[in-house]
Amino acid sequence: METLEQIRDRIAARFPGAKVSIQLNPGAAAEHSLLIDSKLGREIALFLRDDAALQLDYCSNATGVDWLDKEIVDVKKTTVADPAGGPAKVVEEKTKRTEPGYLEAVYHLYSMALRHGPVVIRMRTGNRRDDVKLPSLTPVWKSCDFQEREIFDLYGIVFEGHPDLRRLLMWDEFKDHPMRKDYVSPDDFEYEPTPHDAVLARAKAHYPAPPPAAPATQPEVKP
Amino acid sequence: MSDAPSTPTPTPFPAAGNISDAEREELRRHGILLTSLEELYNWGRANSIWPLQFGLACCAIEMIAAATARFDIARFGAEIFRPSPRQADLMIVSGTVTKKMAPNVVRLWNQMPEPKYCIAMGACAISGGPFKQGYNVLKGVDRFIPVDIYIPGCPPRPEALLNGLIELQKKIQTEKVAGPQAAKHLRSDVQSEFPVPEYGEHDIVPSKNPDVWSPPSLPRKA
Question: What number is the ipTM of this complex?
């Protein structure tokens, strides 16, 4: 199979306007992925499926990732020459900026025809609040159907062009997206036999109120 | 007997009168079978339990295994798993009850005719089990319907289900047909239909039925 760099270069040559980059996986598995342009997501997916050298005809897995807002500290180093003629000083200037969070859909692609894979592709939404649309890849790979419904249900990514985008695991009236990192689950931990850690902190709100301190009464003295 | 207990042992069938087991046996030898309507009624019901064919997760596989030749739930007269709640009198809640499934479980329970019994099979049905801290699992089916027998285990083996069934049979055999101690299905003041929870925006509403379940009050160090 071609390397990820070769695939990236071929996508870039085929779709001149598309932003395609390689996301490195620092883990031991080193399963690097291709971050593709979500605007051309469907076209790139069709290219990956139909290209003679790749023939990635099977999507084995699709899932979502929630990336929260990230605070990044930029360190800018400037060298200031000492007017007295001494050694130059290095001045560090730190600036903080917030990188807005986004939602991500990850697809694992294999080729049944050529027996290779996986090729991992990712698409990102604009942010986590209102711009959460991505093109659906179900028309390209039928196996994405339930998986994209699951992502829609649990992460809230709206897949445009999905044939049947409904909630899969939670009920239709449910408003939240439970796999988002800022999801707060309902507090129904009234009773915990042996609470500890986070559950203990939660269970404390349900502890029975301590009985009011009884006023000290004088013992009755029998005549 | 010299070491007889000071308090007389309760006769197993009080409606049959104050006769001892030896006297009953003596009568039986002469071809007279002495029994009570209550005994006959409970004997018939305890040995012909029809469970609802209803499984939710891994415990259901163990329940199915209990019906196979190796474990043979038919020995207890409980092998007729009914596909309709209207023909069943035992609900074995075998598996994880998710919040999405909970209203349907209560609805099935309401559709079962009295007398009916409920077995909570496995850790999930009892308390939510390993999924207790999840957002989508009901933390015990007894939050909505009354449970007669709890079978611990994850999942319990078929023998454990059979033991639970035997315990339920014992419970049925001690039920009274009349009087203030009468079984709940014979009393008009005991509720037999339970409100079905609604699907809410964040959780099922209400998240528990306070008439059936309230959290135990455990004073703890704050």
Answer: 0.75
